[in-house]
């Protein structure tokens, strides 16, 4: 499929009436984030959003959210994070004041309106709050980005999803961080979205990295310069439809 045809398909899918619907029939970790006005709940929901969506939601529903306010050990674990990793993550979050996640992001973002510089500032702050380190904890938070480097670097899918939730004003997102420009967001690129983007001709880079996320986002900005990430859900939906078609052919 060439780029023109890919764009046309994307625009058509974006018109679907319920394309942005998120509920228990079409589950998403955003369901948990919506249950609270606390930005920390949204961050937990985003950073644990890897793997099977049903397993993610089951884990998030069973978490002891009281640990955001009081000292204690978590009895929960999830894939690469053991109980101590989860407990320490909550310890880190207990040291964050209301509005602090946005403020630390803003400190890095504001000069160049750079989401990556905002992430650098916020992630550096989170690591400074707690000296605890383990493989599971480092996987959960991710590496502090090396500014200016995009090729061969993680696309920070879970972080970009968190920023989409917090910044984007339209459905299904939360739109709480009013100072950040939605036009500057970067698509939360996972391997499925990357593959769909290639198949639709929306990007050419075959490596799954931050550079590919930038390239795909640039294409989406050509379609909507003010709200490029409104096409994130349609891309995901096209991927779902292709998977369903493959199953039907078997």
Describe this protein's structure.
The protein contains 12 helices and no strands. The mean pLDDT is 94. It starts with a helix and ends with a helix. With 250 residues, the protein is mostly helical. The radius of gyration is 18 Å and the shape is globular. The chain has one domain (3-249).
Topology, pairings included?
Blueprint lengths: L2 H12 L15 H4 L5 H9 L5 H10 L20 H12 L5 H10 L5 H15 L5 H7 L15 H11 L23 H9 L10 H14 L8 H18 L1
Helix pairs in contact: 1-12, 3-9, 6-7, 10-12
Features:
52% helix; 250 residues; mainly alpha
Q: How many separate domains make up the residues? A: 1
Binned, the helix content reads: 40-55%
Unreliable stretches: none
Mean pLDDT: 94
Summarize the structure.
The chain is mainly α and 250 residues long.
């Amino acid at each position: 499929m060439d780029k023109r045809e890919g764009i046309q398909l994307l625009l058509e899918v974006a018109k679907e009436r319920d394309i942005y619907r998120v509920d228990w029939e079409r589950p998403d970790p955003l369901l948990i984030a919506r249950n609270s006005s606390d930005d920390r709940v949204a961050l937990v929901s985003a950073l644990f959003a890897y793997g099977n969506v049903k397993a993610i939601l089951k884990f998030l529903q069973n978490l002891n959210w009281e640990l955001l306010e009081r000292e204690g050990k978590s009895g929960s674990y999830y894939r690469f994070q053991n109980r101590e990793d989860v407990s320490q993550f909550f310890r880190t979050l207990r040291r964050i004041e209301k509005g602090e996640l946005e403020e630390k992001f803003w400190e890095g973002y504001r000069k160049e309106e750079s989401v990556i510089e905002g992430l650098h500032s916020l992630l550096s702050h989170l690591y400074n709050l707690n000296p605890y380190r383990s493989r599971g904890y480092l996987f959960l938070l991710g590496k502090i980005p090396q500014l200016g480097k995009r090729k061969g670097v993680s696309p920070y899918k879970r972080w970009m999803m968190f920023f989409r939730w917090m910044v984007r004003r339209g459905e299904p997102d939360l739109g709480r961080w009013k100072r950040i420009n939605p036009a500057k967001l970067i698509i939360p690129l996972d391997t499925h979205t990357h593959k769909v983007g290639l198949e639709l001709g929306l990007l050419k880079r075959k490596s799954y990295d931050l550079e590919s996320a930038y390239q795909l986002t640039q294409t989406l900005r050509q379609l909507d310069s003010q709200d490029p990430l409104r096409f994130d859900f349609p891309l995901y939906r096209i991927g779902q439809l292709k998977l369903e078609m493959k199953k039907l052919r078997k």
